[in-house]
TrEMBL record:
Residues that, per the record, bind substrate: 190-193
NCBIfam families, per the entry: hemK_fam, RF_mod_PrmC
MF GO annotations: nucleic acid binding; peptide chain release factor N(5)-glutamine methyltransferase activity
Entry protein name: Release factor glutamine methyltransferase
Methyltransferase keyword on record: yes
Reaction equation(s) it catalyzes: L-glutaminyl-[peptide chain release factor] + S-adenosyl-L-methionine = N(5)-methyl-L-glutaminyl-[peptide chain release factor] + S-adenosyl-L-homocysteine + H(+)
Family: Belongs to the protein N5-glutamine methyltransferase family. PrmC subfamily.
GO biological process: methylation
Organism: Flavobacterium laiguense
Function: Methylates the class 1 translation termination release factors RF1/PrfA and RF2/PrfB on the glutamine residue of the universally conserved GGQ motif.
EC number: 2.1.1.297
Superkingdom as given in the UniProt entry: Bacteria
Pfam family, one: MTS
Lineage: Bacteria, Pseudomonadati, Bacteroidota, Flavobacteriia, Flavobacteriales
Keyword terms of this UniProt record: Methyltransferase, S-adenosyl-L-methionine, Transferase
Length: 285
């Protein structure tokens, strides 16, 4: 079958669910990943065909897209901060908001003296997207990354190798960690922060497919991870060390209060491109 003909059929079948634009973008993502072809190749060679076995693969992806399984899981990869990351059901799919957090950290630190070796800790690393993009973009760093999930860490390790950076991975439950005994210059975390009461705002494809361990917290103690990480940061950040968080958009005020109470200085709250309170920074002076 000609790819062009399959394209028409594929987009048609997904348009009512996703809209034509998104259905088309899925088509080209799969084309690139599975056939190693770009849009331009199809324009230049309109007679290219899909083999019977390729059609089977495409049809299987199509059926799973109809079940709202995220395209990133179906292709097993995604892009974050210009880098490729393997993803699977054990790790959260990296979000654009988190790229904004990474960008903030990089712009605050890229001018630090070249002689200074930055020690960075990422807590709840998941796919490793924060740890790896910081290691890749900040020179002279030693990045450590913790996660409670052995399976997430296995994915993060592959991502570090694939992106040619060295990260020290540690399997640990942050709620049980008392002291890491290192003088970190930067501690960063995007911990679980979605409350049950916000569950209905979460899209079905996220709810049904992404790891709840990485997403949800109890309503009555929504800041449990932040409190614990801030306590650890008081002990394990160097003098004028920086603490960064991605946060729940509805809890900006509570987060500022928490860091003030714990004596962090120069506290900054930032919005993401959607205008939601999404990240913050505090200094340990
Ligand atoms: N921002 C994520 C979402 O949209 C939640 C990430 C998290 O809980 N850390 O689902």
């Amino acid at each position: 079958m000609k790819i062009k003909e399959y394209r028409t059929q594929f987009i048609q079948e997904l348009t009512s669910m996703y809209g034509e634009g998104e259905a088309e973008s899925f088509f080209y993502l799969i084309l690139e990943e599975k056939q190693q072809l770009k849009r331009i190749d199809l324009a230049l060679q309109p007679d290219l065909v899909l083999s019977a076995s390729a059609i089977k693969v495409w049809n299987s992806i199509l059926e799973q897209l109809k079940l709202e399984i995220p395209i990133q899981y179906l292709l097993g990869k995604t892009s974050f901060y210009g880098l490729d990351f393997e993803v699977n059901e054990n790790v959260l799919i990296p979000r654009p908001e988190t790229e904004e957090l990474v960008d903030w950290i990089i712009s605050n630190n890229q001018k630090s003296e070249p002689s200074k070796n930055l020690k960075i800790l990422d807590i709840g690393t998941g796919s490793g997207c924060i740890a790896i993009s910081l290691a890749k973009n900040l020179p002279n760093t030693h990045v450590f990354a913790i996660d409670v999930s052995e399976k997430a860490l296995a994915t993060a390790k592959k991502n570090a190798v694939h992106n040619e950076v060295t990260v020290t991975f540690i399997e640990q439950n942050i709620l049980e960690t008392l002291d890491l005994g290192k003088d970190f210059d930067i501690i960063v975390s995007n911990p679980p922060y979605v409350r049950n009461l916000e569950k209905e705002e979460i899209k079905k494809n996220v709810l049904d497919n992404e790891p709840h361990l990485a997403l949800f917290v109890e309503d009555h103690d929504a800041l449990i991870f932040y409190r614990k990480i801030a306590e650890l940061a008081q002990k394990n950040l160097s003098n004028s060390g920086q603490l960064y968080f991605e946060i729940n958009q509805y809890l900006g005020k509570e987060m500022v209060e928490l860091l003030q109470k714990m004596d962090f200085k120069n506290i900054e709250l930032r919005k993401d491109i959607y205008g939601n309170d999404r990240m913050m920074k505090g200094l340990h002076l």
